[in-house]
């Protein structure tokens, strides 16, 4: 955690997957509804939100780190099926 900045002009959020900061419009807001991670496309759903790059790689990282329960202050595990549909499947080419 580095110093806190109060730059309101360009709101940044941290991706719960790769932990990199990005401008809010570039991130997908995620809220939890009844143990399910739900994409909040319009940013209007109530409650605590987590932010994620809408990419399979970042979703995968977030799931592996159990970042959603931590970020959303809920007991895991959470169903991320809907998020997977939104960001697409991870390419597993080896
Ligand atoms: Zn990311």
Nutshell version of this structure?
By secondary structure, the protein is of the alpha+beta class. The chain contains 3 helices and 5 strands.
Please explain how this structure is put together.
- 23% of the residues lie in helices and 21% in strands.
- It is built from three helices and five strands.
- By secondary structure, it is α+β, with helices and mostly antiparallel strands.
- The chain has one domain (12-87): YlxR-like (Hypothetical Cytosolic Protein, Chain: A, 2-Layer Sandwich).
- Bound molecules: zinc ion.
- Zinc ion binds next to loops.
Chart the SSEs and their pairings.
Blueprint: E1 12-14, E2 21-23, E3 28-33, E4 36-40, E5 50-52, H1 56-64, H2 67-72, H3 81-87
Antiparallel strand pairs: 1-2, 3-4, 3-5
Keyphrases for this structure?
binds zinc ion; Hypothetical Cytosolic Protein, Chain: A; YlxR-like_sf; 3-stranded antiparallel β-sheet; two-stranded antiparallel ribbon; 23% helix; 94 residues; 3 helices; alpha+beta
């Amino acid at each position: 955690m580095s110093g806190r900045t109060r730059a309101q002009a360009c709101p940044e959020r941290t991706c719960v997957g790769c932990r990199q900061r990005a401008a809010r419009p570039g991130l997908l807001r995620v809220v939890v509804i009844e143990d399910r991670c739900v994409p909040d496309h319009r940013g209007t759903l109530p409650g605590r939100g987590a932010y994620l790059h809408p990419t399979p790689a970042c979703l995968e990282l977030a799931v592996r780190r159990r970042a959603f329960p931590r970020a959303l202050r809920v007991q895991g595990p959470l169903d991320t099926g809907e998020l997977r549909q939104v960001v697409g499947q991870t390419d597993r080419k080896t």
